[in-house]
Amino acid sequence: MEEKNNTLYIDDASTTYLAEKYGTPLYVYSVSEIKDRIGELKKDFLNKYENTTVSYASKAFLTKAMAKLISDEGINLDVVSGGELYIALSAKFPPERIEFNGNNKLYDEIELAVKNNVGKIIIDGASELPMIEEAAKKYNKKVNVLYRVTPGIDAHTHEYISTGKLDSKFGFPIDEVIGEVKKANASEYVNFIGYHFHIGSQLFENDIYLKALDIVFKLIEDTISEIGENIQELNIGGGFGITYTDEKRPPFSFFLEPIMNKINTYFNSKNLKRPIITIEPGRSVVGEAGYTLYTVGSIKNVEGIRKYVAIDGGMTDNIRPALYDAKYRAIVANNVNGSNLETVTICGKCCESGDIIITDAEIPATNTGDLICIPSTGAYGYSMSSNYNSLLKPAIVFVEKGKDTLVLKRQTYKDLVRNDVV
């Protein structure tokens, strides 16, 4: 992101040009930024430590184009629904490099995974093993499985994205999982290979990962004692924080170096072979690579209270501010260096008082028709978008070194009634 002639450019592409060509609202992704983040993961994790893998958490953002980009970059894919799995398979993503996560997998989803030779399924509840066995028997397969556990660590993040507490809908309590593992280990249809945990998202501390590891190490010891075998894989999740407003995104090494030092020290001290270590970064790969462009419409000045600047999108394309008070910053893309600053509230066009993208944003004075850019919307913008008020979902454009490519068409009104049967 840079300024040229008072205009905002993303990966050498003019935002005013993109808005004119594709319309607004518009999701814009910098392919260079995504590749840079993956390159950092390769340098500081994959190439630095043996027996490591990265699974991009597709819930952050997934289209066929994104699946192809992840495939080309040589990392794996984490999916949490039959829909995400279907998108990946439609993009010809190698199924053996897919892991299937999620807290309430349905039989049809599990069958789709087993039938298409997905690399592993991460079991999240006791009801899943019988369904996996049924599908594996039907297709004469043996399925690799991990068990997700909750270490009981309270991550310092928003309650809605904290997932490692004991009071969580995800995973098994760590003191109850061994009995389930024994069932898997005795099954002729599954191959138990290890454990998975995830303690939360948008994290800026590394010590909470280390505390979680201490708990999981005890589980590994109990597992060896009970089934007589070491685990083959340990998936430690992701959650690495990014910059939205004034936070400073830590480098991946800030998290991964102490994590890997602790893991290597532990397994060396026990004279055990270290299992494959997997991480699942999603937001930290695409969050800062994504931007949303809007056109300013109505401007209302409530004297002595606030000035509302309405945009042609809102909570339908970015629900995070309304959902958990997420904070963003704004740039007037066609007047980046404007000096006449004013404090405004940027609101959406939905029929909801809570459709506010930014409260008290300090930006150059704007007029109807100006172009607003909200950075760091690459994660969970499109993924959580909706058709509330029957608004249309935006198009998605990839840009790389000045070249723009439409990867997802804007919805049309016809799309809104496409599945109606009356």
UniProtKB/TrEMBL annotation:
Residue ranges annotated for the Orn/DAP/Arg decarboxylase 2 N-terminal domain, each copy included: 38-286
EC primary class: lyase
This enzyme's EC code(s): 4.1.1.20
Binding site for pyridoxal 5'-phosphate: 239, 280-283, 380
Repeat found in the keyword field: no
Pathway in which this enzyme or protein is active: Amino-acid biosynthesis; L-lysine biosynthesis via DAP pathway; L-lysine from DL-2,6-diaminopimelate: step 1/1
UniProt cofactor(s): pyridoxal 5'-phosphate
Keywords tagged on the record: Amino-acid biosynthesis, Decarboxylase, Lyase, Lysine biosynthesis, Pyridoxal phosphate
Source organism, top-level taxon: Bacteria
Active site (UniProt): 351 (proton donor)
Gene Ontology biological-process entries: lysine biosynthetic process via diaminopimelate
Binding site for substrate: 283, 320, 324, 352, 380
SUPFAM superfamilies: Alanine racemase C-terminal domain-like, PLP-binding barrel
GO MF term list: diaminopimelate decarboxylase activity; pyridoxal phosphate binding
Subunit structure: Homodimer.
NCBIfam families recorded: lysA
Known role: Specifically catalyzes the decarboxylation of meso-diaminopimelate (meso-DAP) to L-lysine.
Protein name according to UniProt: Diaminopimelate decarboxylase
Species of provenance: Anaerosphaera aminiphila DSM 21120
Gene this protein is translated from: lysA
